[in-house]
Design goal:
- The chain has 361 residues and is α/β, with parallel strands linked by helices.
- It has 2 domains: 2-170, 3-Layer(aba) Sandwich (Rossmann fold); 180-322, Rossmann fold (3-Layer(aba) Sandwich), CATH 3.40.50.10490.
- Helix content is 49%, strand content 14%.
- The chain has helices at 2-17, 19-32, 50-66, 99-110, 122-131, 148-158, 168-186, 191-199, 213-226, 243-249, 270-285, 300-322, 330-339; strands at residues 42-47, 69-74, 88-93, 114-119, 135-137, 203-209, 232-236, 258-265, 291-295.
- The radius of gyration is 20 Å and the shape is globular.
Amino acid sequence: MARERSDGLATMRALAVALPAALEDGFARGRELSLPAESGPAEVYVAGMGGSGIAGELARGIVESETPVQLIPVRQPTSPPSFSSRSRVLLISYSGSTWETLRAYEAAGRARAYRLVITSGGPLAEAAGRDRVPVLPLPSGLPPRASVGYALGGILGVLDPWFPESNDARLRRILARIPSAIASMARSRGPADRLASAVGDRFPFVYAESSFLGLARRWKTQVEENAKQLAAFDEMPELFHNALVAWDALGPKGGDRFAPILLDWDGSPPLVRQGLAYLERLVKSRGAAVQRVRLEREDRLEALLEGLAMGDHFSLFLAARRGVDPLPFEAITRLKAALGPAEALSPAAPVPRRSVRLRSP
C-alpha cells in the first residue's frame, strides 16, 4: 500500500512538472481551431465540470481583462436559455462522458450555436465526429485534473485572435522562465513544501481577487482531490462584506483550526490589497495560521501560471504529509456508476432523482 501511494505521488508530481509542455501543446492545437475575432463584445460559453471545467475559469480572468470577450462558465445540469445561433460554446470533458457537458452539447446543437469540443474521447468525441464539430484532442491516460495545462492552453489558443496581439511570443517568453520556478516548487523544503507544513491538518480557506477566482477554486479542488482534505475558496472584495464578519466573531484563538491562504497579486486594485492586509491582521488576531502567497509576476498570465503550479505542488506535498495517494478518485467513479451510463442521459431526460447510496471507503 505504501508503495502504491509512492507511485501515485510520483506520477502526479511528474504531471505537475510537465505543465509548461502541456500549455505549449494545447495553445498550438487551439490556434489551429481559433475563432475569428469580430468587432465589439462577444460571449463565449465554456461548458465543463470538475478538473475539465476549471480550465475555462482559469482562462476567464485573462480573457475578460484583455479582450472584449465575456467567458461564461456553464456548470449546471440544464443549459442556459441564452444559447442561440450567435453563441459560441466550448465543451470540455476529459473523459467525454460527463453528462452535464453532453447535455450542453446537445442544447447548443439545438440552438444552432457554434460548438467546439475539447476531450480525449468518449461519447462527446463520437458525437462531435458525427456532427462534424471541431475537436481539440487531449492526450489519453491522464487523471482529468492533470489535463488542465492542455485545456487552458487550448482555450487561450482558440481565443487568441481576440487579444490585441497574439499570445504566441508572450507564452514562449513565459514558458522559458517558468520551469525554474516549478523546479523550486517541486523541491523538498521549497516554497510549496513549506506552505504544506504550515497548513498541516488545518482547514484551508483559499482567497483571491475576483479575476483570480478560478485559481482559488483550482487550489481548493486540488487539495480535495490530491490530499483528500476538505477546503474552501472565496473572492475579494466580496468576502470583505460577509466572511469578514464570521472571522471577527471567532474571538481570540477561535481560528486556530483554520489556515487562510491569501493569493496576493501585485497588480490587484489598491483597495483590494488594502482590504487583504486588513483581513490578514484580523485572522492572525483570531489565531488562524494565515499564509500569504505572493503572485509576483507583473504579467497577469505569468502570475496565473505560477500560481497554478504552486497550488498543484502544495496539494501534493499536503498529500505526502497526510500519507495518502493523490492519484485515485474512486468516489467520483462510484457516483458516475450510480447515476448510470452517460449515453442514457438524453437531453430531454430528467436529472436522476433516485436515492444514491455511496459505499464508504
